[in-house]
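Thread: Modeling a multi-component assembly for a lab meeting

Hi all, long-time lurker, first post. My supervisor asked me to bring a structural picture of a complex we are working on to next week's group meeting, and I have zero experience with this. I have the sequence lines for every component (530 residues in total). Could someone generate the structure of the whole assembly? Inputs are pasted exactly as I received them:
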Amino acid sequence: MHSVDYSGPVALACDDSKLHPSLQVVWDGSANSNILVGSTLNKAILVVDPEELQKLLIELEGKVATKVYFFVPAVILQLTSTPPG
Amino acid sequence: MIVAAEAIPNDLTAEELYSKSKEVIDGLKNHGVNIVSYSCDGTQTERTVQDLLVMRATNWVTHVIPDPEGDCRHELRIPMYRLSPVVMVQDSKHAAKTLRNNLFSGARALVLGNHLAMYSYVRDMAFSALPGCPLYHRDVEKLDRQDDNAATRLFSAAALDFVTNQFPGRLGLIVYLFIMGEVVDAYQSRTISHLERIKMVLRCRYFLRLWKRFLTAAGYSESRQYISREADDILDTLIDGLIGLVFVYRDHLGGQRYPLLPWLHSTEVCEHIFAECRKLVKDFTHLNFLYMVPRLHILIRAASLFSRGTDPKAQAMGYSHSYLDPENAHIESLATYPTDGEISLAVGEAWDEAVTLLALLGIQADDLQTPPTTSPPDASTQPPNPDETDLAEYPTEETEGLALQHLIGIQQTTGWEAVDSEIQNRMHMLTCAVIALDMEERRAL
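Re: Modeling a multi-component assembly
Sure thing. I ran the full set together rather than chain by chain. Output:
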């Protein structure tokens, strides 16, 4: 918004959608480690070794995300080829 | 642009969601993003979050809307976050679906004065052989209750025109479609003025108020003869939301004049994102979603640049988004806001229109203002109930002609079986008397 120099009103919309519940391991280059994604803890969980993963899977049973909740600001720009008065 | 996406469990409480929402609003405001509205769809949790956002704000801006019934006034309280107001709004297209589902529900029969609004009437429209009905068979049979397009077709001007011309006696349905359709239109129309939008939503508010009063007075149950509590709440938020947006755009944007495009204050953009996600991966996981985000930004940006919507003629296709289509919106008129004086006048006009619509349904608003013992429907348009008919209760000054008319009414609606022999004899004698008088008059001529 700053890049288009817009400081006008913005509408914030939010809603949720269903997720396929799953815990997945992915390599995170910045953390230089595997991380576990898909829990409701909403933070990167480092996975050091397979034993750690086994423990985490048991620990996180019942904490697998089933939905994703979005917050999306709708900027009133689409019509503003005519700039706001 | 997605600013936050959180993986959540099914049983997320309103309290937890409130904390996340507040964090996002505060975070955006801290970064200089001027959030003016918070839209969500009509689930109980999300409505509770909106209530919490209003209640727990530390400061509010208040606007007073005069009430057409005299002393009481409606106070519109808009919460302030980081020194600027945030209006709570519901998604108008979700509201249209909720109102359609209320009309189709077998658990309730909407009683509007002497008339009904119900599913079979809409089914008759869809299956009518007469030309001009915008409804498809699929809109009423094996229907998709989440179909945006079907709800839009039901509350469209074409559907209203069709039912008015082809089924003019079904006033309950006609008025319901008109009143509810107007609220959705107040948000979705690209052309009408903001003053007109305010009048449309206020008309609905007063209509609902008097409708509820009628049901209480007539001894009906709100749980069976009125729209659901959820629908009532959603309408309330929509009405206050629109008026609140007008106030905020008019008075609280630091002297800058921006056009208010109410159709953008909705959750359509979220549904658009879901649709794009499902196009990429039908049943996506959290990790799939994280990988999709950069692509989603490009897809949404492309759709915005081309103002692309979905096919409005689609059937049973669930969500349909049209928020990117500006149609023939006129920015200058959308940046023109009514004064408080004009809004006060609109209050009076909206009230008069609501009262007129109720009179059409056989409800006299004046009668409803007295304690609930008054019988609200106009007796002249109400079919008499033979069980409650007692000739001894007729006013003594009532002429025999009126009594005869009343008895003929009973005979026409219930048949002879429903009245006892004494009344039958009396009807016979009165009929003979009328025939004799009529013949006498003719002979004199």
